[in-house]
Amino acid sequence: DTVTMNAWHRDQVTKLPPGAKRVATSEFCENAALVYDNRAFTVQAHPEFRPEFIDGLMKTRGKGLVPEEVMAAAADRLSDPIQDKTIADQIAAFFKAKRP
Question: Of 24, 49, 52, 59, which is most buried, counting CB atoms within 10 Å of its CB?
């Protein structure tokens, strides 16, 4: 399934670590979400970031750091619905699952 989340990062996992399984990818981030040996679930995007927070980051930290065309595209998408609850539910289900 495709989910839309807010992201604000330049650092990312570029090589799949030992024991990790890729469970999500994006055009920008090959390892967008990883599961480590059924013990840890990581997400590169920020499901906790609301659109207004991203807007604030763009205004205070983006200029001069993020290319203008990337900022403009992001600004155009700020009103798009995000699936933060979907990913939160997936994370919760992962941690509630019985472990072997």
Answer: 24
Please give the model's pTM, rounded to 2 decimal places: 0.80
Q: Write out the two tokens for 80.
A: 């798009």
Each residue of 22-70: pLDDT tens digit? Answer: 999 988 899 999 999 888 999 999 989 999 999 999 999 998 999 999 9
**Angle at 42 (CA atoms; ends 41, 46), nearest 5 degrees:** 130
